[in-house]
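During the no-cost extension, the postdoctoral fellow (Dr. R.K.) reprocessed legacy sequence entries with the updated structure-token encoder. One reprocessed record is reproduced below for audit purposes.
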Amino acid sequence: MRTLFAMSVLLATCACQQKVSVPTSQDLIGNRQLLAVWQTKCDTGDYSQLGATEKTEMCSSTQDATTSVAQIESGKKESDFFKASTLRK
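Re-encoded structure tokens follow.
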């Protein structure tokens, strides 16, 4: 009887867990607030304590988006610097 009860509790617990919808890199690039939330979750929050495989599944799009945003911002700075340099002459 105890085994049956323990199994039913375990089954109920597993059935109640919902699959998390992970945003794509494009979604995160387009929404900087969402990117900031997911960076926090992956660095110090909900997903920071996961194993390597699970963390990769949950946070790979966040890492890709962070890299892309940094490259976009760097490109804008370089473009602005080049534009300012050529206008001075």
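The mean pLDDT is 79. Residues 22-88 form one domain. The remaining legacy entries will be reprocessed before the final report is submitted.
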